[in-house]
Batch of 2 targets.
Target 1
Amino acid sequence: MSETYRIVGETATEIAAGVEAAVSAGRLSPGTMLPPVREVAVAAGVSPGTAAAAYRLLRERGVVETAGRRGTRVRPRPASTFREEIQIEVPPGVRDLSKGNPDPRLLPPLHDALAAAARAHEERPAMYGTGDDEELIALAGERLRADGAPEGALAITSGTLDAVERVLAAHLRPGDAIAVEDPGWTALLDLVGVMGLRPVPMRLDDEGPLPDELERALRGGARAAVITARAQNPTGAAVSARRAGELRGVLAAYPEVLLIEDDHGSGFVDLPLHALSGVTARWVLVRSTAKAFGPDLRLAPVTGDPVTLDRLRGRQRLAAGWVSHLLQRAVAHLWRTRAVDTAAVARAYGLRRDGLVAALAERGLPAHGRSGLNVWIPVADEAAAITRLLGRGWACAPGARNRIGTPPAVRLTVSPLDVGEIEPLADDLAAALRPAARGRYG
């Protein structure tokens, strides 16, 4: 126990608030062992039940973790070490390939969609208690069924992460284990940490998570798994038909596990969806419009089992309440009018992504990018690779943002590239990087 903090308080809430404040202020550092419940009760002058209730509150908030006879320790504080904060400064004149944004040139014009949404608002303004836009729900359902997704209820959330956070909060508690892709989506890894969940990394290859990795995570007690269907961030992996069958076989042996399937690639990826959802009793499949229509036009239709969708809607009603109906109607208009030529957009990204992967292979550099906006390149040393590339006029994202246990790498987003830049970029990458091991990502 740190000598700079003494546990005090007259109620469980006061004791827990004091400990949490001490952790936030740095007076209780990560890993610090807290005294047993009976010692806390004596020191604070409260009953053992009150002290135990304080520890329970701290566990529920993700401040501490209890490991049986090994006692209670302060958890790492993810808020001070967000992966999103691992960034590089891009000097003027350097081509920035680090952001992960779509190409603005491939986004649809919004004037007609926003005008249609405004006209609908004038005719039937959405008021308190109005449900999700019926046309959007119908269109989302049609698209999901056409792609082979299982039948399920539907809801609209403010993007993928909004849906994932609500579903995890509805089913899991701090300390629960969750299987995540490694390397994986930075925002998800940050969310898992903030919620006090314990990430269990799953290695993957170009066809998605490896079945034995999913099996290991579930056998070890993971209560949930998050799997990206296609355009995996950062590697571009896409679950193939063969891999989907293997993963379904693993999931079938653990029917109580919560499966969250992220299909944010819908709308800008031409590889088919091979859905895993429906194998377990609790599941959701989430689709986001952010990459196809632009990050500011972000919403996500969600389908899932009835219990999970009811819990999601309940939490949404208590928080944001709903997603803007102007936004919902604008997206419905874009879908109804087929404002985005998915095949053409996928082809445009594919020319850049596949071209860069092929050019690097010709130069002896392994790289991964089966689908989506990014190329993942193993390197020997991330800092050295980034520095050398900056010196040659290119900025990339450090792989440390995405990795848990897999080896070093860098991520390049191909959206800003023109096809004519691929060969010069490949030459500069070859000059700056040393080849790393081929194959899987770890």
Target 2
Amino acid sequence: MSDPTFQVQKIPYDRSMLRPRILHIGFGAFAKAHVMVYHDEALKLDPTDWGVVAARLNSGADELTLLDQAGGVFTVGEMSDDDIRLREIGSVIRTLHPKRDGTSVLLVQIADPDMSVITLTITEKGYCLANGRLDLNNPGIERDLAASGDPATAIGIIARGLHLRKAAGLAGLTVLSCDNLPSNGRLCRQAILDFADRLDPELAAWVDAECRFPSSMVDRITPAMTDQSQQKLETALGRPDPNGILCEPFRQWVIEDSFAGDRPAWNLAGAQFVAEVAPFEEMKLRLLNGTHSFLAYLGALAGKETISDCMADPVFQTAAKRLMLEEQAPTLDVPAGIDVSSYADALIERFSNTALRHKTTQIASDGSQKLPQRLLAPIRQHLEANRAWPLAALAVAGWMHYCRGKSETGEFLPVNDPLAARIAEFATQSDGPEYVSNMLTLTAVFETEVVGSQDFTSRIHAAYAQLETDGVVKSLSTLS
């Protein structure tokens, strides 16, 4: 039986009125807990025909089929320690997966006259970028450009779908990135334009003129679902929901107000349409995401399973807040009306939410993609200003230790990273200073001009040696 205090907020709008106006690519936990919640709330406050087609490109075909079997309806539970607020989400009207439905169906969906917006949560690596441009040496991009009809990357699929729209004489679309990538809209635009130009220069010109790629900043902590969290949701609901998701109560969405046509009324649900996203984006990337990475690597090394476990340790909590206020905040152009100290306090409170069970090893994935914007960009500013950055140095060194695949207590640490094979070579062939020097040759992570700084390399070597000698907790304690 479900707890009688856990009432489910039902869908109040007429789902039969929904048409395929939005295509979401990368429909995983975060999309369910963030984008779909905003859209569902907007539909509740202003019923329209803006339905969502949910797509995944690689794994997840079975999960989409389960969602189809539930009629597209799933539950989102907002957790705060022992409390859960439940709501049904009904904005999804169809699911697509190329391995299940065929790639052509996805392309035709993009070319549907009703389609207006494509939203993306495909992670940093999904954009196939190198130095801000499309990576033409990426194997997926090479295959997509060589193939005549069945692209597999998100960039290839969107570009070929837009090609169909152009050929049909339809209007352009808005492609809205919702990934934690600085200037995500600009980078998404560049990747698609580069692909389109290789495909057909006239297509690139049409995309440039007719489509829009607004940047956005998203924020909501959404741990991966586990057997334990599935059981927690089932207990609260009184029935299982294999499509359901649990997340924190807090959510934020800041969107550049640049759309090719009509825009969804997400502002009714609390989203902010602004002229410039960058200040919000950098504040979140550096204070929240940068601190998350700091806690993920050092916490996992110290045997902490979750972020809330880190926050229960005064050494970690003190270090996290110092990183935010003393090392990350000085690198920011803080948006008007934001009190950084209060923002940091709110983050500590969110990180301490014991209900989330946000695993350090989950946050630790794809470090080579995340470190440049979360920690290395602020470090570069410290170098230019001749400021100290001891906690950020421990974070980078902690990533290097983490990449060796073993915690201080001897537990296995999964290294899920696009550069995992190269990192594994370094880890097996070298140790100590030689290993650090090898890791610093990863140009996809470390800019040449930064690695060329003796101040930078010496501090990373020193931080790595300190962790090796003293361990995480003692190393952090010496800085508090």
